[in-house]
Amino acid sequence: MKRRKHELSLTIAILFIVVCLLGFVIYPIVEVFLFPKIGDFLSILKSERYMRTALNSLMMVILSTLSATTIGFIFAFTVARTKVPGRKIFKLISLLPLFSPPFMVAFSYIMMFGKNGLITAGMFGVKTNIFGWHGLWLAQTIAFFPVAFLVMEGVLQSISPMLEHAGRNLGATGFALFRTVTFPLARPGVAGAALLVAIQVLADFGNPIMISGSFSVLATEAWMRVEGWADIAGAAVLSIFLLVPSFAIFFFQRYWVNKRSYVTVTGKIAQVEIQKTGKAVKWTLFAICAIISVLIVLVYVGLLVGAFVNGWGYDWSPTLRYFREISSRSKELFRSLSYSIVAGFSSALFSMVAAYLVSRKKFLMRRFVDFTCILPAALPGIFLGIGYSIGFTRPPIDMYGTAAIIVLSMIFWNISTGYQTGIGALQQISPSFNDAASNLGATSMRIFREIEIPLIKGPFFSSFIISFIRAVTTLSVIVFLSTSKNAVVTFSIMNLVSDGFYGKAAALTCVLLVISFGTLGIAKLLMGKQAQLFKV
Amino acid sequence: MENVHVAISNVSKTFGKSKVLDDISLEIPRGSFTTLLGPSGCGKTTLLRTLAGFYNVEMGEILIDDQRVNDVPSHLRNAIMVFQDYALFPHMNIRENITYGLRIRKTPQEEIGKRLEKTIGYLDIGNLLERTPGQISGGQQQRVALARALVMEPEVLLLDEPLSNLDAKLRVSIRAELRQLQQRLKITTIYVTHDQSEALAMSDMIAVMKDGRVMQVGTPSDVYYRPNSAFVASFIGAVNFIPGVVRAVGDDRIEVEAKSGGATIAAREKPRGSGAGNAPRIGDSVTLAIRPESIKLLDKAAAGGDKQNFFNGKLIRSIFEGSSIRYWIDVFGAEILADVFDPGENILREGTVQFKIDPERVHIILD
Fold first, then answer.
1. Which chain B residue shows the shortest CA-CA distance from A260?
2. Looking at residue B145, what is its pLDDT?
3. Could you tell me where the DSSP H helices lie in A35-132?
C-alpha cells in the first residue's frame, strides 16, 4: 500500500516535470520558429541593414571573445600558477562582475569614459565618444572575462603538477615549459572557456543597449524591431539568427571540447611547491592584472559617485536626493525582490527534483528531461523573452502584463545551473551508498530522507542563491515581457539611462548591487566553505 | 670516497609545521640500486623529489659527484625521475614523449634517432611509438616512462614507486626486468617503495625510513636478518618478538631467558640496536627477533640428539598459503608464528608440536 503511494507520487512528479518543460521551455522555442512567415525570413535576409547587424554581432563575438579569453587566461595563470603578490585580491575583484547586472559595466563606463566622463573629461579634459563598437568591446571584455577566468582557473589547477615537474626535470624551463607542457594541456580548457564567453557576448543585450549607440547588434536590433515598429515577426527572425549559433556553440563546447579535455582527476594530489616565476614575467602579470582590476573597481566607483552627485558632468556636489527618489520606484524594487525570491526558489526546487529523477530513476523521457533542463543555458535571454512574449501574451494563454509571466521566464531561464549543480551533487553520492543503506535495512524513503536530502541541501541552497541573483539582475529575458504593471528594476534602469537620468539609474543599480552582494555575503556566512557559488 | 656517487648529508625539510625530513645522511655508491623503504609519510618520496630538485634543500647538502647541487635547478642535475603515475604528457604521442627531453636540449636529429632506437630496444616498446599515452596499458606506460628517463642517459635514475599502479603479476615480472636492465646499464638508481618484498628483491642497498629519519642502511640480508630495531624487523616481513633477559654470555653464544614462559633461547651472533657495538651483558633486557621461517617444526620421530633450542608448544591454528603453511603456536607466553615450506598435505591440526630454532637465526635487539 505504502509502496503504491510512493510509486504514484513518483509518477506525478515525473509528469509534472515533463509537462512544465514542454510548456515553458519547448513551447516558447517552437513558437518563435513558427511565428514568422517565410516572407519575414526572406525580407530580413535581403535587407542590407540586418546583414550589417549580423556582421556587427559576429565582429563583437570575435573581438570580445578574444580579449576576454586572453585576459581571463592571464588572470587564471597568475592566480593558479604563480606567486604574484595580490593574487587573492585579483581573484576576488574579478569575481564581482559575475554577480552584477550585465548592463552595469557599460552604464558605468559611459559615466567614466563618456563625453562627460569623470576620467576622460573630468581628469584629463578630453572629450571622447564612448558610444560605439569600441565602448562595447571594452564593456564586454570586462563584463565577461571573469567567466573565462573561472573556467580556466579550474583547468589550470587540475593539470597535474607532476607533468610540469616531469617537463622541468627533462630540461624545460620558463617559457619553454609553458609552451610545450602547460599551455598545450590547458588548450582544450581555453577553447571551452572561449566558447562560453562567445555565447555570452552573442546573447549580451544589456551592454549594447546602453553603450553601442548607432552600432547595432542582433540582440538590440530585435528589441528595436518590437519597440519601434511593433514588428514581432522581424524580432523573432533576428532572435533565431541569435539562437542558431549560440545553440551550436553551446553543444559543440559541451560534447566535443569537453571530451578532448586532458583533465583527469587523480586521487592523489601531491604537495607541490609552485616554482618561482622570473621577475620580468611576474611583474608583467602583476601589471596586467592590476590594470584590469582597476578597470573593474572603476565600474563600481562610477556607480557610487553617480548615485551621490547632483548632476553628472556639470554639478559634482554631493546629494542624497536620488536615494530619496528611489522610493518613487519602490514598486519596481519590491517586484524585483519578490519575483526573484519566488523564481529563485522555484527554479532551485524544480531543478533539484529533475536532477534527482534523472540521476536516480529510470523512466520514459528521461533523456528528454535531461536535455531540456540543460537547454536554457544555450538560449540567449532575448530569445526566451521573445518566446514567452509570443507564446504567453495572447489566447489561449494570455499572461500579458502579469507577474506570472516574468516569474515563469525567470524560473525556466535559470533551471540549467541548478540542474547541473544537482546532477553533480548526486553523482558524488555513489549508488553503492544506497545499496549499503538498503542492505542495512533502510527503506527507499528513509534513504532519501536521511542520506540524499542532507547531501543535496547544500547544492540546493547554492542554486537558489545563484538563480535569485541571476533573476534579480537580468534584463534581456524580461525586456520583452515588461509593462508598467510588472516592470522590475532592471527595466527601469534601462529606461532611465536611455533618457539620461544617470543619477537615479546609478542609485537604483547600487541598490541592486547591495541586494546581490548582500545575498552572496549572507549565503557565504551561512554555508561557509560549502557554498559552491562560483561555478560557471 | 671515490665510490660514492650521491651523498646526502644532514638534510632536513619541513612542510608547514611538520618535519618531513629530519637530519638525513646517506651515501649512495656508484652504479648501485639503492632503495628508500618505508611506510607512507616517512619522507622517502620527499627525499627523492629533493634529489630531483623539485624541493629546495632547507638544511644540509646534497652532493652528486662531489659537486654541491643544492642550488642547481632540476634540469641541470641530470637526475631523471620516473613518476609514480608516470606523468606522461597526454598531448604528445609516445615518440614525442620519449624524445621530449632531447628535443628541449636541442639534441641533433640524428642523435635523437640513435638514442631512441637504443632505448626502445631495451624496453621492447618499438610498436607503440605513434600511439598516445591514453591508448596503451599501464604496464606499457610504465615502460614508456622509463624510456623517457633512460633516453636522457642520466647520471642518476630516480624511481618513485614506479610499480605501484600495476597489478601483482606484472609487478613481479617488471621488477626482475628493471633490475636486469639496471645491472646491464650500471646506472646509479634510487628507488622509492613501501613494498618490502620489492626492496629485498631488487636492491644492492636498502635505507629503511620512518618519520623522516633513516632507521637502518644495509644490504637486503642485513636489514632482513639483522634489523637494528623492532620497527625495521616488523616492517620487513613477519617476525616474532620475544622479550627476554640475558642470562649467560659465552664466546660464541648468548643465552636469553624469555620473560614469560621461562624458556632459555640461545643465540649466536653479534647484537645490534641503540647500543650497537656494545655487547649485551648479563642481566640486560633484550628483545629477540625470530623470522617465522626460522622456526623448524619437527616430526616427533626425528626428535633426538642435540636438544639445543628445542621447544614444545601448543598449536593454536593454521593457514594454508600454497607454497607454505603458517602455524600459530602458543609458547614463550605468546603466539609465535612458524612457516613451513613445501608442506604437502600433511597439515597439523592441533596438539603439541616440537620445534627448534637455529641459534644463527636468533637476532638480539638491545632494548
1. B91
2. 92
3. 38-46, 48-81, 87-95, 104-113
* pLDDT value at B277 more than 70: no
- Closest by Cβ to B91, choosing from A162, A176, A185: A185
Three-state secondary structure along A128-179?
Answer: CCCCCHHHHHHHHHHHHHHHHHHHHHHHHHHCCHHHHHHHHHCCCCHHHHHH
From chain B, pick out residues whose CB is under 8 angstroms from the CB of A166. Answer: 81, 83, 87, 89, 148
**Which residue, A263, A439, A245, A406, is CA-closest to A340?**
A406
Three-state DSSP at B312 gives strand
- Among partner residues A163, A187, A271, which is closest to B15 by beta-carbon distance? A271
pLDDT of residue B24: 92
DSSP letter, residue A117: -
Residue of A nearest to B84 (CA): A162
Residue B69 amino acid letter: V
Mutate to test the interface with B, among A159, A162, A169 (most CBs of B within 10 A): A169
CA distance B105 to A159: 24
**Residue A330 host element (H or E):** helix A330-360
φ, ψ for residue B315 (rounded to 5)? -75, 130
List the alpha helices (DSSP H) in chain B. 44-52, 74-77, 94-104, 109-123, 138-150, 168-185, 196-202, 220-225, 230-235
Q: In this structure, are residues B200 and B220 in contact, taking their beta carbons and an 8 Å threshold?
A: yes
Residue labelled with grid coordinates 540543460: A374
Query: For residue B152, which of B111, B180, B193 has the smallest C-alpha distance?
Result: B111
Residue that the C-alpha cell 565600474 belongs to: A299
A112: nearest Cα among A91, A128, A95: A128
Query: Which domains does chain B possess?
Result: 4-233 (3.40.50.300), 238-366 (2.40.50.100)
Contact B298, B254 (CB under 8 A): no
pLDDT for A121 equals 67
The pTM of this model reads 0.80
- Helices A48-81 and A232-252 meet at what angle, rounded to 10? 30
* For residues B26-45, average pLDDT: 92
- Domain limits, CATH 1.10.3720.10, in chain A: 38-111+123-263, 320-536
Contact with chain A for residue B47, Cβ under 8 A: no
CB < 8 Å & 24+ apart, contacts of A157-161: A157/A80, A158/A263, A158/A264, A158/A265, A159/A185, A159/A186, A159/A262, A159/A263, A160/A264, A160/A266, A160/B85, A160/B87, A161/A270, A161/A272
Q: Determine whether A3 is exposed, middle or buried from the number of CB atoms within 10 Å of its CB (0-12, 13-18, 19+).
A: exposed
Protein fold of A38-111+123-263: MetI-like fold (1.10.3720)
CATH of domain A320-536: 1.10.3720.10
Rounded-to-integer distance, Cα A266 and Cα A353, Å:
31
Residue from A79, A84, A26, A98 nearest A534 by CA: A98
Residue A2 pLDDT: 55
pLDDT at A368: 92
Give SS3 for B41.
Answer: coil
* Short-list A110, A57, A44, CA closest to A216: A57
* The dihedral formed by the CA atoms of A401, A403, A405 and A410, expressed in degrees to the nearest 10: 130
Question: Which strands, in side-by-side order, build the sheet including B363-366?
Answer: B264-267, B254-258, B240-249, B285-290, B363-366, B272-273
B201 — phi, psi (to 5°)? Answer: -70, -30
- CA nearest neighbour of B128 among B146, B144, B112: B144
pLDDT along chain A (536 residues), means of 10: 68 91 93 86 83 91 95 92 88 88 88 77 72 90 91 84 87 86 88 90 90 88 85 88 90 76 49 67 91 92 87 78 81 90 94 89 87 91 92 83 90 90 80 71 71 79 88 90 88 88 89 89 76 54
pLDDT at B126: 86
User: Is this complex scored with an ipTM above 0.90?
Assistant: no
Query: By the 8 A CB rule, do B309 and B358 touch?
Result: yes
